[in-house]
Specification:
The protein contains 12 helices and 2 strands, in the order αααααββααααααα. The chain has helices at 2-30, 37-55, 60-66, 77-106, 111-133, 158-180, 182-192, 194-199, 204-229, 236-251, 256-273, 284-296; strands spanning 148-150, 154-156.
Length: 308
C-alpha cells in the first residue's frame, strides 16, 4: 500500500510540477501572485477537449484519430489537441496581459492590485469554461486500459507512465532553454534584478512576454495531462491552485528545480496521508504544508542562491 502511494504521488506530482513552474515564474519574474494561472490549466484542458470533439467525431478520419494507440486510452487526436491547447493558452495569456496586466504595470500598479486583478480574471475564465462546457465532468476517452503491474505489486495505468515520461522530457527541455538560450538567460536575469537587466540592455518587455508564453504552455500541458490521468471539471484549476502555489513556495520562489521537487513532495505527502486519514481531508495537506513552510522556512526548502 505504501509503495502504491509513493508511485501515485510521483506520477501526480509530475503533473503538478508543470503548473508550479508557471507560478514560480509569475512570482519571480512578473513579481505578483497570479491566481488565474490555475484556471489557465482548465482553459488548456478544455481547449483540447473541444478539438477532440471536432476531429475525432464520426467518419473515417475521425475514427482513425480516435483509435487508441497501443495500450493507451487515446489516439493521434490527443497530440493534435495538446498542440491546440498550448496555442489557445498562449493566446489567452497574452490577451489578458495586453488588456489588463500590462496596462496596470504601466500605471505603476502595486503587486496587490495585480493579485486582485488575477482573482477577477480567474473567475472570468472559470465561468467561461462552465458556460461553454457545462458543470458535468468530462473524459478525453472512454477506452478501458489494462493496468501495468510493477515490482512490488504496484499498479499503474499506461497513460500515467507516458505522461510521467513526457513530463520528464519537458522539464529537461525547459532546463536547457533557461540555461542555454538567449530568452532563457534573459528571464533568469530579470528574475534576479529587473533594473540591472534593463541597464545591461535586456529587453524587459520581451522577457515578460516569453514568461507568459512559457508559463501558459506548461499550464496547458499540465491541464491536459491532468485530464488524461484524472478527469476534466470546470473547477479543476481552482482545486489545483493551492498545490501549485504550495509547491512554488515550498521549493523557493524563483527556483524551477525547487518547484519540481516541491510538487513531488506535496503529492507524496498527500498520497501517504490518504493511507491514515479519510480521502475527503486530502486537500488539507497542501494547506498544512504551506503554513508549516511559511512559519519555519519562509524562503522555501530549496531557495536559489544567486541563480536558478
Amino acid at each position: 500500500m505504501i509503495a502504491q502511494a509513493i508511485v501515485d504521488g510521483l506520477l501526480s506530482g509530475a503533473v503538478v510540477a508543470l503548473g508550479a513552474i508557471g507560478v514560480t515564474f509569475s512570482l519571480s519574474i512578473l513579481r505578483f501572485a497570479n491566481f488565474s494561472h490555475g484556471d489557465l490549466l482548465g482553459v488548456g484542458a478544455y481547449a483540447a477537449l473541444f478539438l477532440l470533439a471536432m476531429v475525432a467525431g464520426p467518419g473515417v478520419a475521425g475514427g482513425a484519430l480516435a483509435e487508441p494507440l497501443g495500450p493507451f486510452s487515446f489516439g493521434w487526436g490527443l497530440p493534435l489537441a495538446l498542440a491546440f491547447a498550448m496555442i489557445v493558452a498562449v493566446a489567452v495569456s497574452l490577451l489578458l496581459d495586453a488588456l489588463v496586466y500590462r496596462r496596470l504595470r504601466r500605471r505603476g500598479a502595486d503587486p496587490l492590485t495585480l493579485v486582485f486583478a488575477s482573482f477577477g480574471l480567474a473567475l472570468v475564465l472559470r465561468n467561461l469554461v462552465l458556460l461553454l462546457f457545462g458543470p458535468d465532468p468530462h473524459n478525453y476517452s472512454t477506452e478501458i486500459q489494462m493496468a501495468v503491474r510493477l515490482p512490488g505489486g504496484v499498479l499503474v495505468m499506461p497513460d500515467q507512465i507516458l505522461v510521467f515520461v513526457i513530463t520528464l522530457a519537458v522539464l529537461a527541455g525547459l532546463w536547457v532553454f533557461l540555461q542555454r538560450t538567449r530568452y532563457g538567460i534573459a528571464m533568469r536575469s530579470v528574475a534576479e534584478n529587473p533594473v540591472l537587466s534593463g541597464i545591461a540592455g535586456i529587453d524587459i518587455a520581451a522577457a515578460v512576454r516569453m514568461t507568459w508564453i512559457v508559463s501558459s504552455m506548461l499550464a496547458a500541458l499540465a491541464g491536459v495531462f491532468y485530464g488524461v490521468t484524472v478527469q476534466l471539471r470546470p473547477e479543476m484549476g481552482l482545486n489545483l491552485l493551492l498545490p501549485l502555489f504550495t509547491a512554488a513556495i515550498l521549493g523557493g520562489v524563483g527556483s524551477v528545480s525547487g518547484a519540481v521537487l516541491g510538487a513531488l513532495l506535496i503529492s507524496l505527502v498527500e498520497n501517504l496521508a490518504a493511507i491514515v486519514i479519510p480521502s475527503t481531508y486530502k486537500p488539507l495537506v497542501p494547506f498544512v504544508l504551506l503554513l508549516l513552510v511559511l512559519y519555519f522556512r519562509p524562503a522555501g526548502l530549496f531557495a536559489p542562491k544567486g541563480g536558478h
